[in-house]
Amino acid sequence: MSSCSRVALVTGANKGIGFTIMRDLCRQFSGDVVLTARDAARGQAAVQQLQAEGLSPRFHQLDIDDLQSIRALRHFLSREYGGLDVLVNNAGIAFNTADTTPFHIQAEVTLKTNFFGTRDVCTELLPLIKPQGRVVNVSSMMSLMTLKKCSPELQQKFRSKTITEEELVGLMKKFVEDTKKGVHKKEGWPNTSYGVSKIGVTVLSRIQAKKLSEQRKGDKILLNSCCPGWVRTDMGGPNATKSLEEGAETPVYLALLPQDAEAPHGQFISEKKVQEW
Asked: What HEC string does 39-91 produce?
């Protein structure tokens, strides 16, 4: 591969929405598309499935909970492509509502992947994003719904235009600590670790976009978070209202924003429209 080649990458892409985003990018993106998955065998099987459809994805193992795994991916992208053009942070987990795992454990595990893992990927890979690059952090409408259930004080903090990444990390850690102490409701948190983790992703995206605008103003990089909708996946369940193809629409739209586009940037997008935060 020459470093002139353009490259897009999707995390958690061996099934569900991630796999469908991969398929769409293989068809529409002019360049290589890298499928990443925590489990190499499942990732390779997904690649073979796309190859059987006449598409040409590449594969690289990635566990977003493992910093060494993220850094190995960063090294691969630097060596093979000299950077990254499109990053779709799709990897995430959710406990089933019927799961009996204690809530504080659900909180720790969910935030470890959905917030802290996504943040680690961004910390390592955002410096590789090339001019006119696109970054899509897959969040959820649950982030907005959960925000509205937070105490007024927490809402004010999460909506603040000046919140820093360090302050956001502190709040996410506080949620986990509060669940361990059994005081999260008293402290103004709602009873959903998935929802809180996605507040983290949405707010992190706003902070990152602002930082990009300040530090790389001329590079026209657009970074947004989005909600795919309620999709029929292992996570969404069989009764969800959207097909996988419909769920992939908004993330793919953001990943392929035209090179001369100046917006959206730092926004939360659902159904291809900016949502008020």
From this structure: CHHHHHHHHHHHHHCCCCCEEEECCCCCHHHHHHHHHHHHHHHCCEEEEEECC
Angstrom CA distances, 219 to 97, 119, 207, 251, stand at 43, 21, 17, 21
No. of H helices and E strands in the chain? 10, 8
Least Cα distance to 29 among 271, 266, 257 occurs for 257
Query: Does the active-site annotation cover 81?
Result: no
The residue length of the chain stands at: 277
Q: Rounded distance, CA 27 to CA 263, Å?
A: 24
Per-residue pLDDT of the chain (277 residues; tens, 9 = 90+): 445 699 999 999 999 999 999 999 999 999 999 999 999 999 999 999 999 999 999 999 999 999 999 999 999 999 999 999 999 999 999 999 899 999 999 999 999 999 999 999 999 999 999 999 999 999 999 999 999 999 999 999 999 999 999 999 999 999 999 999 999 999 999 999 999 999 999 999 999 999 999 999 999 999 999 999 888 888 778 887 899 899 999 999 999 999 999 999 999 999 999 999 9
Q: Distance between alpha carbon 263 and the CA centroid of its chain, in Å? A: 19
Identified catalytic residue from 29, 194, 230, 268: 194
pTM: 0.97
Q: Which residues contact 30 (CB under 8 A, 6 or more apart)?
A: 6
